[in-house]
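User: Please fill in residues for this 429-position structure.
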């Protein structure tokens, strides 16, 4: 029986899960494929620690011995980060080996280079596990929904942020306390910066935009804002307006122009994405024929991610011919990205003000001068540090005008500190 032979780079949590699948479900995969899958070698800096998984694979600290082994058909890269992962992946591709990776950061920054190398060498670079863990969103875009022209993709793509915001919503807890709990429970890293500042989500959005709209995107053009300034007070006000706050990845293509942004977003409570709770991820796609499609599941974890990795390995064994991004790399365009200043949205604005007459008139006057109209407003009697919160929801407004207005409002002597804005998204239907 024919055998597909694999080498694994990285024997951490996900790598251990992949080795477990190779060992535990070997017979099942052989039955489904009509051929055997064999993990022949594993490279890691630490090959002595017991991972608690049975494997017959050769253990080595020398990644080159895998990259240059003529018997290995596919290299599974689970090192993470930019280097040496980029160099290893390029070497594998140039050596005529297929590559499977879960490395969203690598693809977000160096995807164009890597996919073109795969094309030039007649091999495939697959990455289902790089976005939303075990949710098969990328294969759905590439294959089952491939006949659709996508107008939008919206995602809750970071379990750490979604867990924090869910706890803040359901238990009225402050951000700092929930983050500490998330770290204690293992839902957040000791250094959670990539998660809570939106960088991890932006990496995943870059991949989704390429697949949905057929364009390479400069990662630095994705507007990225985290959740660190969201307070329990903002979540309470959002609920009063009928919204929930989520860290949302937003990709849109309108008239050949791309919107690419990650930021806290207020979405109506009745929208399906509002029901994505805890560490779960959710992706909502808008196709011209299929309409809205929603995918929800565990976006991380050893088992879910290993499952996605092995799905790609099995796809290689089937010799599937679908282009990795749904478009051949040489046909990928470079559509312009709409500057954040030109984005039009509704906005939630929260000000802390002195409890004196005329405050509301001053704020409303500045907004009016900047061409911003108010849809609704709440003035709370509850004081925060001696100041009164005023919350407004605007009609559609341009980001540039909002920024100009807030700069003027924050300079008013009756306003304390920096005002908060949260963008609102009502186009998910």
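Assistant: Residues filled in for all 429 positions:
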């Amino acid at each position: 029986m024919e055998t597909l032979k694999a080498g694994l780079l990285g024997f951490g949590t996900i790598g251990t899960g992949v080795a477990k699948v190779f060992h535990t479900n070997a017979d099942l995969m052989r039955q489904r494929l009509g051929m055997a899958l064999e993990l022949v070698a594993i490279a890691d800096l630490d090959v002595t620690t017991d991972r608690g998984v049975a494997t017959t694979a050769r253990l080595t600290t020398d990644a080159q011995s895998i990259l240059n082994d003529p018997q290995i058909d596919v290299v599974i890269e689970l090192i993470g980060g930019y280097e040496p992962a980029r160099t290893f992946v390029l070497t594998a591709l140039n050596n005529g080996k297929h590559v499977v990776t879960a490395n969203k950061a690598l693809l977000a920054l160096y995807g164009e280079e890597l996919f073109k190398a795969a094309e030039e060498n007649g091999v495939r670079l697959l990455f289902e596990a790089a976005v939303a863990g075990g949710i098969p969103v990328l294969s759905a875009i590439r294959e089952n929904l491939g006949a659709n022209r996508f107008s939008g993709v919206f995602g809750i793509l970071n379990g750490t942020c979604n867990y924090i915001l869910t706890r803040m919503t359901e238990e009225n807890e402050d951000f700092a306390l929930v983050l500490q709990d998330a770290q204690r429970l293992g839902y957040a890293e000791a250094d959670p910066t990539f998660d809570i500042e939106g960088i991890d989500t932006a990496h995943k959005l870059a991949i989704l935009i390429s697949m949905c709209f057929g364009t390479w995107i400069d990662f630095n053009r994705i507007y990225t804002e985290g959740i660190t300034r969201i307070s329990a007070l903002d979540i309470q006000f959002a609920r009063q307006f009928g919204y929930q706050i989520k860290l949302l990845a937003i990709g849109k293509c309108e008239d050949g122009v791309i919107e690419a942004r990650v930021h806290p977003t207020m979405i109506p409570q009745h929208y399906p994405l509002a029901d994505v709770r805890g560490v779960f991820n959710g992706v909502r796609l808008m196709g011209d024929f299929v309409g809205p499609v929603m995918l929800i599941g565990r976006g991380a974890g050893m088992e879910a991610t290993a499952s996605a990795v092995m799905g790609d390995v099995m796809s290689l064994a089937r010799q599937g011919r679908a282009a990795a991004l749904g478009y051949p790399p040489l046909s990928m365009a470079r559509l312009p990205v709409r500057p954040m200043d030109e984005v039009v949205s509704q906005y939630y604005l929260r000000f802390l003000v002195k409890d004196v007459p005329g405050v509301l008139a001053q704020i409303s006057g500045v907004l009016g001068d900047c061409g911003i109209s108010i849809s609704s407003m709440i003035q709370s009697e509850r004081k925060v540090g001696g100041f009164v919160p005023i919350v407004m929801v605007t009609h559609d407004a341009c980001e540039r005008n909002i920024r100009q207005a807030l700069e003027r409002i924050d300079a008013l002597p009756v306003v304390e500190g920096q005002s908060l804005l949260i963008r609102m998204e009502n186009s998910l239907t």
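For context: Residues 73 and 266 are 46 Å apart (CA to CA).
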